[in-house]
Amino acid sequence: MLSEFKEFISRGNVVDLAVGMIVGAAFTGIVKSVVGDLINPFISLFMAGVDVSGLYIPLSMHTYDSLAAAEQAGAAVFAYGRFLMAVIHFFIVALVLFGLIKAINSFRRKIESDKAAEETPEPEPEKGPTQEELLIEIRDLLKNMKAT
């Protein structure tokens, strides 16, 4: 049973999946930083300095100074600002993945077309009549011209 497990783990697909998960986790930190540190300030700039991720609607009669204060008090809130940031986060990840997959696909197509070009034999040049055949044809034409 242990040898079967070793065989399963050593397969390329499992290792590729593990590497993909690790890179994906690291990439999440980068995307969070892009959204929180680069995009959120621009959005806040256009919204008169309001931090978008801090936008919320309290679901009780009490008012709070911030989302953090409402959560500290244990109040139920509709935190739509966080949702907006999650949507932006999703679109950034989707855009990066789209670009990555598009680049990989174009690279694959180029490799496949190069392979196809290598495998396709060059067409042989068309063979015309030999010099002897041309001379025989000219001789026959001259004989026919003399006869007429």
For the biggest sheet, the summary is: 2 strands, antiparallel
Number of strands: 2
Strand and helix order: HHEHEHH
CATH-level-4 superfamily name: Large-conductance mechanosensitive channel, MscL, domain 1
Percent of residues in helices? over 70%
Rg, alpha carbons: 36 Å
Main-sheet strand order equals 1-2
Based on CA inertia axes, which overall geometry fits?
elongated
The CA-CA distance between the termini, in Å, is 98 Å
Multimerization status:
single chain
Structural class: mainly alpha
Q: What does it look like?
A:
The structure is a single chain. The chain is built from five helices and two strands; from the N terminus they run H-H-E-H-E-H-H. The chain has helices at 2-10, 12-46, 67-72, 80-119, 131-147; strands at residues 57-58, 77-78. By secondary structure, it is mainly alpha-helical. The chain has one domain (2-122): Large-conductance mechanosensitive channel, MscL, domain 1 (Non-ribosomal Peptide Synthetase Peptidyl Carrier Protein, Chain A). The longest helix is centred in the C-terminal third of the chain and has 40 residues, at 80-119. Helices cover 72% and strands 3% of the residues. The protein is elongated and about 120 Å long.
Task: Give a topology summary.
Elements: H1 2-10, H2 12-46, E1 57-58, H3 67-72, E2 77-78, H4 80-119, H5 131-147
Antiparallel strand pairs: 1-2
Helix pairs in contact: 2-4
Fill in the keyword field for this structure.
single chain, 148 residues, mainly alpha, Non-ribosomal Peptide Synthetase Peptidyl Carrier Protein, Chain A, two-stranded antiparallel sheet, 5 helices
